[in-house]
Amino acid sequence: MTTMxxxxxxxxxxxxxxxxxxxxxxxxxxNDDGFESAQIRALYAKxxxxxxxVVISAPTQNNSGTGGAMxxxxxxxxxxxxxxxGSVPAGQPGIGTDPADPDIHYVDGSxxxxxxxxxxxxxxxKWGRQPDLVISGPNEGNNQGLINASSGTFNNALYAINRSxxxxxxxxxxxxxxxxxxxxxxxxxxxxxxxxxxxIDRIERNNGRAHRQGTFLPPGTxxxxxxxxxxxxxxxxxxxxxxxxxxxxxxxxxxxxxxLSGSPAAVGFGVDVPLPGISFVLPGGTAPVxxxxxxxxxxxxxxxxxxKCFISISPLEGVPEASRASARKVRERLRGLLxxx
Length: 341
Known about the structure:
8 helices, alpha/beta, Stationary-phase Survival Protein Sure Homolog, Chain: A, 341 residues
């Protein structure tokens, strides 16, 4: 009896291990805030604890707002300054590995450059092939609606999708720029990471099978996920998900100001100078005279769902092709111009 019980427990353990390995994913983590960001470090730890195989490839500095920029044909030389969190000093190679973890890599370049380094170099060193999933983020601040075009977080996801790799862009309302793995297990960064893990687990359960490339999400698709700020004052502790559309509504509407000192957002960020530049108009704010702000009141748009404390999940495709209905209307405007044979 005792021997049979021991054998039974051993068999169960082996089965559970096999199931865990079957559902484990090879995941490339990237972002636009930097490889030392507390949010990416917390998600990295959570994913590894859950049995996934994970590598990070991310920029050395905060590169928010750089969209899909990249430096073509410009060799990456040594660091001219220390990395964002100071773990790698100036003078070290511009591409390298975190001194404390061989699976965390950095690139002194744009977010997309760091993503491509992860896909074209690190993934093949680690797994001998492309990852099952790319997660870009969690970003320090939301990427919703019209601001997505300027987001490195969002554009990383698009580049991965166009490589036929499932991708999730994740952004949160938590904007604090913290570095390194949080020491408090109840830290907000771990709560954000836990919500991402719940999303991945749900997709895996609904798929109902082991996942390899092209099966985690429908081919050619990805997700843009935005989490509201954890705000006890307004009773918001995000836990409910809503299927949304990107729309145009956003927390941050970019506007060019002739004097940044005339932008409340710029002044709030400490940029109180009478010089020109780009700033944001925040919800409820006013733009310079003559500037018309984009309006989007659809409750299914990302930012509007976030305002109601829902975690928004918007489906993505890599190529920004017009809908068939819009394409027909455009084609009508081109009547008599197009070759039909």
